[in-house]
UniProtKB/TrEMBL annotation:
GO BP: any one term: transmembrane transport
A Gene Ontology term for the protein's cellular component: plasma membrane
Residue ranges crossing the lipid bilayer per the database entry: 12-33, 70-92, 104-124, 153-178, 199-224, 259-282
Residue ranges of coiled coil: none
Localization: Cell membrane
Recorded family membership: Belongs to the binding-protein-dependent transport system permease family.
Stretches assigned to the ABC transmembrane type-1 domain: 67-282
Protein name (database record): ABC transporter permease
Length: 289
């Protein structure tokens, strides 16, 4: 009877585990297979081309633009979200009034999907509908903000929308970390004559190291797979000036009929995510041992 009781939870979990393993890792393997074939509109397993799709991928200017945009977007998005989130968390950690209401306001953007965020910011940044038109209607006719329609600034519009969406998430993580620190540490430092900014810089922030790494990991993952925000806000345009690897993969696979090339780009995205996640997991598991 006891053996059956011990076996029952495993039997309940097993189907979900098997299906999850099959769909996640099975599709990863399938994508890898497609990337070494000459698949176009439909999968073609008869024509093996080796690494030819990867060679084509790295020879394409559009892929290099997508990678450059990814680096720029990741640095500004992750850095901006973390900086603003940390400042908001420190502000709320001062036990101010209505901190619950303010937390809700700051966290509200995270309740929205990236599609909604992208659509809203597209209206705000549209020169003929949003901020620029509002300023002109108010009499400031010399005001101009046409970043959304300029090829060299469109990616910054994606950054602005992404930071607005994710700052509240970073704030929640940092605030949870700050609330977990013993107040006696701060009081002892104040007795020794340390100012509040110095206490946060020298004592509190180093103690938030696990939270910082977790936030970087999550936000970097969101940056690498960013798709819906770009499609809703700029659709990769003007031209392909604001393309990211995810939008590049979608375009090649489903609108250009280049499934093999799209699979190769997806494999490169997977490798990028693994390059971030695996060292982090290794360091965490090593510390636990």
């Amino acid at each position: 009877m006891k053996s059956l009781e011990n076996l029952l939870p495993k039997l309940v979990v097993a189907p979900g585990f098997v299906l999850g393993f099959a769909f996640i890792y099975g599709l990863m393997i399938w994508n890898g297979v497609l990337s070494v074939t000459n698949s176009r509109m439909l999968p073609n397993y008869d024509e093996f081309v080796g690494l030819e799709q990867y060679v084509r991928l790295w020879d394409m200017e559009r892929w290099h633009v997508a990678l450059q945009n990814l680096v720029l977007f990741s640095l500004l998005y992750v850095g901006g979200s973390m900086l603003l989130g940390l400042l908001l968390a420190i502000f709320l950690d001062q036990k101010i009034r209505f901190d619950g209401v303010l937390r809700t306001i700051y966290l509200y953007p995270m309740a929205l999907s990236f599609i909604v965020t992208g659509t809203a910011w597209k209206w705000i940044l549209n020169p003929s509908l949003g901020l620029e038109k509002l300023m002109h209607d108010l009499g400031w006719t010399s005001f101009g903000f046409d970043w959304l329609v300029q090829s060299d600034t469109a990616i910054y519009c994606v950054v602005i929308a992404g930071i607005w969406q994710s700052t509240g998430f970073a704030m929640a993580l940092f605030l949870a970390g700050l609330r977990g620190i013993d107040d006696n540490i701060i009081k002892a430092a104040q007795i020794d004559g340390a100012s509040l900014p110095r206490i946060y810089w020298r004592i509190i922030l180093p103690m938030l190291r696990p939270v910082v790494f977790s936030t970087i990991l999550v936000l970097s993952h969101l940056a690498i797979k960013a798709f819906d925000l770009v499609m809703a806000l700029t659709a990769g345009g003007p031209g392909y000036a604001s393309d990211l690897p995810a939008t590049f993969m979608y375009t090649m696979s489903f609108t250009r009929g280049q499934i093999g090339l799209g699979a190769a780009s997806a494999t490169m995205m997977l490798a990028t995510v693994a390059a971030i996640v695996v060292p982090y997991l290794y360091s965490e598991l090593r510390e636990k041992r």
